[in-house]
Design brief:
elongated; membrane; mainly alpha; transmembrane helix; 0% strand; 513 residues; 88% helix; transmembrane; 23 helices
Length: 513
């Protein structure tokens, strides 16, 4: 661009020089006259075009003349116009759609697949980044990222609605029947071959902790809430027992007094005298003792701070906790005995049930009923967070285990090459069989992505131009169209000189006429 600018300046300066020489050495010479007119017009034309070109980019000669420095004064309009032209005309949605439809993605891939170096490059590229990903999976950052994405996905799902909507279709599908047959066969084989003792021990092992917990809770509940009630009920029972057996107790007391009197002569004489003077009445004494006993029982029942009551409660509490282990052992032994006696019946029942041709439909019906029931709905609502957390943890563990188990398929180059070649050949064969479907799919997706993001073209152009400093913008425009603008100046001088020549000839002709 600088060369053309120098050339244009030379044309302008040459015109000015010729113009000055012709005027300084003005003569009646015809050639000088014509040169004078030609140089005059060339100077006017060259200077006018210099002014016009300069006015686009800056103020000519630094003079702030109106309608100069056009690009800077109209910068935003120019940027908006360029971005709109690029977005809506040069790279419009229609134009890009046509260009995308002219692409044949399958042929591009198939042509590349014919060259072994491309296959090797793809294989090395995939292995390189898979190894990087594999190394990343052993970092805490991967655990954090995996947990974040799995949790985000799982916690957004309504698992209950999902199972409810899909359960019926699943249980009516062939997949369910195949799954049922596979699982039932494994269950029957396991049940038939497993030792009865092993089954009992497994069941007891599973319920042992639960029994212990429930027993502990039950005993604690008895001590905290039921023991007082038990003591009070026992007092009521004793009162009724005394009431119904008052005569028997009275006779027992009278007999006791008689036996006490007969132990020694002195006791016999004293008690006989007391009875003779009506000081002691065995019947009344026995009745009084019975009433005193009933009063004591009532006191124990009604007064929670009664010493006898507290002693009974402390003794019972100590006995309960001291014998908790024995009670637990008795329960487990009892359950083991029941299981051991009935395990064969249980195994035979399960095998027979699974062999029933209607079993799969019955199980499916029960599961569907359970899924639709309020029981599962309420259970899910109460335990939704725990269920999702458990599923999330299981998924994360499964992904990590799958990576660990298949690590050798990647790290071992022979294994990787073998699997890569198998998958690659399979994909190429599928592509050959479904070229049209693949092409249509890719084009459809590309057009969709293009239309969704088309606004970014104009936005990017506008953003880029807005970020340019004025001088940068001027330099870029001049670097692209500067030569053509300098040719305008050169053409101005040339055209001006031609017009000057024509005017000179015309004026000579007019003078002669």
């Amino acid at each position: 661009m600088n060369d053309k600018k120098k050339l244009a300046n030379i044309f302008l300066l040459s015109s000015i020089a010729v113009f000055l020489i012709c005027h300084i050495f003005a003569t009646q010479n015809l050639v000088i006259y014509i040169l004078q007119k030609v140089s005059e017009a060339a100077v006017v034309g060259g200077f006018a075009d210099w002014f016009a070109v300069s006015a686009l980019f800056r103020h000519p000669l630094g003079l702030k003349i109106p309608h100069t420095n056009i690009i800077e004064n109209n910068r935003q309009k120019l940027i908006d116009s360029i971005s709109k032209t690029v977005s809506d005309t040069w790279l419009s949605k229609t134009y890009l759609t046509v260009q995308i439809n002219n692409i044949n993605p399958s042929d591009i891939i198939l042509n590349l697949s014919k060259k072994q170096r491309h296959i090797n490059s793809l294989k090395n590229f995939i292995r390189k980044y898979i190894l990087k990903i594999l190394a990343f999976t052993y970092t805490k950052q991967f655990d954090s990222v995996l947990q974040k994405y799995v949790d985000t996905y799982i916690y957004k799902l309504n698992l209950y609605d999902f199972f409810q909507k899909n359960a019926k279709n699943f249980f009516e599908s062939n997949l369910y029947q195949e799954l049922y047959n596979s699982i039932s066969t494994k269950i029957k084989h396991y049940i038939t071959n497993i030792n009865n003792k092993t089954i009992c021990e497994l069941i007891i092992k599973e319920i042992d902790t639960n029994v212990e917990t429930k027993l502990s809770q039950t005993l604690k509940n008895i001590v905290d809430k039921k023991l007082d009630s038990i003591i009070e009920n026992l007092c009521d029972f004793l009162e009724l027992l005394i009431e119904y057996n008052a005569d028997t107790i009275s006779n027992y007391i009278e007999n006791f007094i008689e036996s006490y009197k007969n132990k020694t002569i002195s006791k016999d004489i004293i008690i006989t005298l007391l009875e003779g003077f009506n000081i002691i009445d065995k019947k009344a004494l026995s009745q009084d003792l019975i009433e005193q006993l009933k009063s004591l029982i009532l006191e124990i029942k009604q007064n929670k701070t009664n010493k006898i009551r507290l002693s009974i409660k402390n003794y019972a509490t100590n006995q309960i906790y001291e014998n908790q282990t024995k009670i637990h052992s008795y329960i487990i032994e009892f359950l083991y005995s029941i299981l051991n006696q009935n395990i064969d019946k249980f195994k035979n029942y399960i095998v027979k049930y699974l062999d029933n041709e209607n079993a799969s439909r019955k199980i499916a019906k029960w599961i569907n009923w359970f899924i639709d029931s309020d029981i599962l709905s309420e259970f899910y609502k109460q335990n939704e967070f725990n269920i999702k957390m458990l599923i999330s943890i299981k998924i994360q563990k499964s992904i990590k285990n799958a990576i660990i188990q298949n690590k050798s398929l990647i790290t071992n180059k022979i294994n990787f090459d073998k699997n890569f070649n198998y998958i690659y050949n399979y994909l190429i064969n599928q592509l050959l069989q479904h070229k049209n479907e693949f092409n249509n799919f890719v084009k459809k997706k590309l057009i969709y992505i293009m239309k969704q993001n088309h606004y970014l073209i104009g936005k990017t152009v506008k953003q880029y131009l807005n970020n340019l400093q004025h001088e940068q913008l001027i330099n870029q425009i001049e670097s692209k169209v500067g030569n053509d603008l300098q040719y305008i100046r050169i053409n101005g001088s040339i055209v001006g000189s031609i017009i000057g020549f024509v005017i000179a000839i015309a004026s000579l002709i007019i003078k002669k006429i």
